[in-house]
Amino acid sequence: MIQFKNKAKSFDFFELGNSVILYYLLIFFLAPILFFFGVSGFLWENSVVYYKALLYLTLGLIFFAIGYYNRQTSSIAGRLPKFLKLDSEWDFRKAPLIFGVTFIFGLGIKILRIFGGAYAYWQQNSWLQNSSFYSLIGIFDWLSSVALIIAFTSYFHFKKNNDARYRLWQKIAWGTFILEMVYVLPSCNRTSVMMLIILYLIIKSYFSRITWQQIIFIILGVAIVLFPFGNACRNPGILRHYSLVERPIENIGNSLTYIKNAGDFTSNSIFSRIDQFAVFSRIVEMDEPLLYGKSLLKFFISLGPPRFIWHNKPIIVGGGDFGHRSGLLAPDVKSTTVGVTMVGDWYMNFGLAGIILGMFFMGMLFRLIYEYLIKRTGISFSGVMIYSILWLNIIKGMEDWIAPVYAGLVKIFILLLIIHYFLIKRGKALKVI
Asked: Which residues are CB-contacts of 36 (< 8 A; sequence separation ≥ 6)?
């Protein structure tokens, strides 16, 4: 019992394997569980597809866990070369300069998006989006996150060492955080807001003090407020459907109805966003011919030269096409895309064998990432900086196609390595924090 309590106390919520499993359970299994207990409103049409999809998802989770937690994977990680010097200590005399460069560059990207017509989800086919340089914008967007990471890392570092400079970095860090929040809120992008908050929590969990229970409480609390806000922001007319803008008659019966409608609106806003079981179930139901790696091979196309060099570079993201083909999107919806999910992509390419082998491989890959960036570096500044941004992309990418997500990870990793080499001291290793 004591051993269990110690393990529970030391549970690392942001360890990649733990996070993937928790998120996998949330987006794929929560909806079936609620459906089993009589909660309606989810997208299933027959019990055969429901149980078949559930079985496949369970196998995917099992083989992911086998790939991630087996000792052989850890052994392989221990033999990876350390030439990237990710355990090197930062030179905090350089931190203000690198912060300034990444912050200003990130601010420039924001301004470019606003005036280029590529700020919000409803903006389509603007001159910036049609530019051959637009593919670079998504990579450089992360420079704002790098600035935020440098600021909070410096703040936590100086505070831990009782260095008076922590007060200045505290103001810089929270000022940057507030500016980021002011930028993303009007876009109605719930994911961007949530990722901003989680980025802070990752940095705090490794360089300061916060329990996994507090992390879960904060994330759930933010979701309860954020998802209804995002839903209403994107679809203002939906409020009248739930009568939330109508003033209820002041009696107990109508007031209770008003409260019930508000609760329904909140729960539906949350579950409609996280229910990926409906997507995977539809993929199984469609039973289309297997792709045999065609969508996965697009990784190399996405990783290839940017469009301003390769002018005829194929467009590899087909979320809109899949959404309409599957019936998950109405024919007249053009501004929304639907990802097939990571496990769905493996299934579409190789069927059940793809799920088993593909998820086993993903488990091994994620273990190597965690071991290399976190455990082997002794929780270094650069290791956490790179890991936190990769973590966000991997978790978000579980709902998307595999090829563009992981090609993007490679590009972001290269950008972060460049920043890492500018930040570190030369020839000194970082002590375990």
From this structure: none
Is 389:72 a contact under the CB 8 Å cutoff?
no
Residue 14 amino acid letter = F
- Confidence label for 144 from pLDDT (cuts 50, 70 and 90): very high
Contact between 385 and 146 (Cβ < 8 Å): yes
Per-residue tokens: 327: 């019936």
What rounded mean pLDDT belongs to the chain?
A: 85
Measured between alpha carbons, how far is 411 from 407 in angstroms, rounded to an integer?
Answer: 7
For the record, the structure tokens of 216 come out as 């879960």
Q: How confident is the model at residue 49 (pLDDT cuts 50, 70, 90)?
A: low
Residue by residue, DSSP assigns 373-427 as: IIITTTS-HHHHHHHHHHHHHHHHHTTS-HHHHHHHHHHHHHHHHHHHHHHEEEE
Q: How many residues does the chain have?
A: 433
- Alpha carbons 246 and 109: distance in angstroms, whole number: 40
Whole-number Å distance between alpha carbons of 149 and 156? 11
pLDDT digit string (tens) for 163-203? 999 999 999 999 999 999 999 999 888 889 999 999 999 99
CA angle 248, 254, 260 (to 5 degrees): 95
